[in-house]
Amino acid sequence: MSGTLPSVLGGIVLSWLLTLAHPASAQQMTEDVLYLKNGWVLRGKITSTASDSLVRLRTGDRNQFAFRRAEIDAIEQERAPDEKNIRYRGRGFGHYTELGALATRNTSGFTNPSAFSFQTVNGFKFNQFLYAGLGVGIDLFDNQSLLPLFGSLRGDLTRRGSVLPYYFADLGYGANITGRDEMNFPARTYSGGALFAAGLGIKAIFNRNTGFLLSVGYRSQKTSFRTDNQFGSTDTKANFQRLALRAGFAF
Known about the structure:
By secondary structure, the protein is mostly beta strands.
């Protein structure tokens, strides 16, 4: 039963994310979307008929485009976003800022099971499925503070619509900035260790490629400490395995 609560929380949050990622109602306004083979995505209203040799699209700014059917990869009807200037960006600089809780049962015996976590990632988006960046943050446990430095891989699982599910995977090192604890006897000197995290999230786009983030994932942080007393020194290792629940923004 000790691992039941994190599993239940993770299942609830993941179900909520997937619900948000699905169009909520068929009654909402829709628009025609042309996905071209050259990578273009155009939104508006199709004005041609099925028998026409050209597919004609009138956009929201009253421009009209015509394409041969051989140039078109797909024609979809999707929920119209609230902001007309939303456009998917498949390449370029990307930034993520996230904060939230790291929670699980108490397995280590010397730290509180919950923790506060903040991180920011800057990098480059090569295509829909691959973003690579470098991140830095702060993880505050009950009696330890760590400064994670890591590389991050991310990608969008779809490029259609205004709510995009994505994956992430982080790997790096958590530098322990707690230092030496002289307040208690025996004294302890803390060290950091390897960091790994992976999970899923959604990005709700509200202005071009700027979006609000919600994510859930697994996070593992290794640490150690040395205990000094009159009999010598003892090294103790730990692996903090956490359920990471985060919110933030990206652009």
